[in-house]
Amino acid sequence: MTIYKRSLQGMVVLLAALTAVGCSQEEASMPDQASNDMAVDMATDMTASIDMAAEEHGVMTAQEQANLERAEEWWRTVLMGGRLDQAEEYMTDRYIQHNPDVPTGREGFMQFFGAFAQPGPIPEDFPPTDVKFAKGDYVVFVWERQSEDPETGESYDYSFFDVLRMVDGRVDEHWDSVFRATPPPGAPIMPVAAGVGPRPVAPSNTAAEQAVEDLVNIEMKDILQYQNVDLAMQVMAEDYIQHNPNVPDGRDGFIDFFSRFANPQPIQDEWLDEPELVITHGDIALYIMTRYSEDPIRDNEVYKWNWFDMFRVENGMIQEHWDGATRDNNVPPSVEPPAGFVSFSN
Predict the structure, then answer these.
(1) pTM for this one?
(2) Could you give all domains of the chain from N- to C-terminal order, each with its CATH number?
(3) Could you tell me if 42 and 249 are in contact, meaning their C-beta atoms sit under 8 angstroms apart?
(4) Measuring CA to CA, how many Å separate 198 from each of 165, 172, 343?
(5) What is the mean pLDDT of each run of 10 residues along the chain (346 residues)?
(6) Which residue, 108, 121, 155, 285, shows the most beta carbons closer than 10 Å to its own?
């Protein structure tokens, strides 16, 4: 089953979600009322159709449970225990790395972490997570981390994401919520071989999971991309739990915040910014989005990274949201990749 911890102090949805994707306000037109009325009707029907019975979804298969346990063992042994000599046992040779600061490949991983990793005791317990589950070949870890507010100095919580893809009991691919940061003055600039893998394939859903995903698509696509904030009343719970530390809590807070700058557009079937991968397990739907930004290290170069949004559905309504936002406001602007940029190997 999905393992998660509720936080009543959580916050939701990144401010940049409406400006990083889709049309500019100058390019956007007013919504077509007929298409948006249809979207409202569909949202109403969808929330009524979701069966949240635990016996129908949310339970990991034996193979998924084995993948989760194997991923945790790799994490404890290689990452926490510093046992890089055991990396071959847990990682494929081609290990595809999507963290833009770490070289791809198992050898690249070992060279990077070998610069500072020291062998030590292997922890018996896996560190606490906010959410963790396995679905198909994928293993998802969502961590609650703390940082210091740059204005007040107070501590606050934010979320960090790690997603692994397992092949025959070994880690074959890794995504996380890291973008490339500008190095301190005088720091050496190390070359990083970017990981380019096949376009990821979403695992199959049960009927109940597909209903969850279809519901969350209304927030991700129709509300955040086509900017029809009024649909929030149809699909979001009144006590909507938010884990983005920049936006007010609750559905009313969400509506008030985004209504101030939303420019509604006619809702279409197509995504303005299509997810790279959606993993839906039980009442949880995780979206991995593709981002391209200017390289802060190498002039006139663009690199690829990933943004994460995750939602929990309860009683037919979207109840909770996580993303990787912090209060540093340091997320790099999105740019168009140059012609010929290779994002996937297929």
Answers:
(1) 0.85
(2) 7-58+203-323 (3.10.450.50), 62-176 (3.10.450.50)
(3) no
(4) 12, 12, 9
(5) 36 35 38 53 54 54 98 98 98 98 96 94 96 98 96 95 99 96 76 91 97 99 98 98 95 97 97 98 98 90 97 98 93 95 95
(6) 285
